[in-house]
Amino acid sequence: MQNIVQRLLDGDRRALARMITLIENEVPAAHRYLAELHRHAGRAHIIGVTGAPGAGKSTLVTQLVRELRQREHKIGVVAVDPSSPFTGGALLGDRIRMMELAGDPNVFIRSMASRGSSGGLASSTGDVVRAMDAAGFDPIIIETIGTGQAEVEVMHSAHTVLVVYAPGMGDEIQAIKAGILEIADIFVVSKADKPGADQAAAQLSMLLGLDPNRRKGPWRIPILKTSALKTQGIVEVVDAMQQHLTVLKESGMLAQRAQRQARSEVQALILHAVMQALKTRVSEDEWSALVEAITVGERDPYSVAGELLERIRLREE
Amino acid sequence: MPNLRPIRVLVAKPGLDGHDRGAKIIARALRDAGMEVIYTGIRQTPEMIVEAAIQEDVDAILMSILSGAHMALFPRVMELLKHNNVDDILVAAGGILPDEDVPAIKAMGIKGCFGPGTSTEEIIKFVRENIHPERLKTEV
Fold this sequence. Notes:
The complex is a heterodimer of chains A (317) and B (140). In chain A, helix 2 packs antiparallel against helix 6 (125-134) and helix 4 crosses helix 11. Chain A has helices spanning 4-9, 13-24, 30-38, 57-70, 95-98, 125-134, 154-157, 172-175, 180-183, 197-210, 234-251, 253-281, 284-295, 301-314, and strands spanning 46-51, 75-81, 90-92, 107-113, 140-143, 160-165, 186-189, 215-216, 219-220, 223-225. Chain A is of the alpha/beta class and 317 residues long. Chain B is an alpha/beta fold and 140 residues long. Chain B has one domain (8-136): Cobalamin-binding domain (Rossmann fold), CATH 3.40.50.280. In chain B, strand 4, helix 4 (102-107) and strand 5 form a beta-alpha-beta unit. The model of chain B has no long low-confidence stretch (mean pLDDT 92). Chains A and B meet through helix 2, strand 3, helix 5 and strand 4 of A and helix 1, strand 2 and helix 2 of B.
């Protein structure tokens, strides 16, 4: 069988699908593959779609994809849903609303379970996006799990963040103010055919008016109303996404965020490697003995950590 | 390292019947058994099901059908899988499948047929024990 990386780059959908599985499962070979893919990635516009459960994220994504297809794009979608904290199982239901898109070879949809990660994404979502990017999908839309206040992880993975807000959520607008409001590049008030949409947009506008971050550099955050039922407002959202990317590029913000991202990725990989090294080089028995020593007061966590770190360093291959 | 990755399953409703209580119960039971279940919703064409299975890289496809159209839809699903060179996904079916059709269904390559009254434990066990060994490989 030809190398999976080559097949993925040649546009083989099954190779991409399998690659994503290997990345999700953190198999030892995944980092090697990702290192190869990295050279071919970095081209796609990455769009995050977040909002409360039931706000209309999947429906919006479906409509955005439909509009982007009109504009001849090849689109990747990563839809994240939560894993059970008890069994690790998950029910991934975002596809239900997106099934009309299935069968189009220029749309690749992947459902991901969060697998214990907090923050609205799975820990490997960024790497999955990289694989789709290398496979030539652009843009790539990340749909987060239904978020509450502080699941803002998507801002680190996406260039453009859409926060979806449905009318009729009343006081919650206050509740989301601190976390979610801050990460939006574009606000989408969904279900605009319902009563209350204008008020919701007005409330958001007022809250944004109070917020000194209303302007993110040269970008003015728009509030756009959409209705999937009446297929309204989607063209404007896609236009705004593309304008935002242009502003990021022209202002140099895109380059800055690429640097930030590169730095945090290397740091995360090092942390991960340190934890792996600890796992393989310190036996369970030794851990138990050390933990016991700390709990009975013979040792302290600081010196134990220092000692173990020293051991990893000295034994490095 | 032991293989602890979750099993991924597509639960699909081919054809036109709109009754998916059974499919949802199965989806929920598999979820509670620690699997990652992608549920497609009702009224799926064989093309949609096979494309979803490929993109989601699932280990198994479970189809639920009550309308009686299984002898038209199942062969199409199996044909499309073959056409896409997919030979490592476990396929099983449930719903209203008359006894006299079961041998023909199994001959298509659909490994399990589960009628009304099947316990969810039986289905969970079946999925766990019949995942294609190729799927558990960690390098390609």
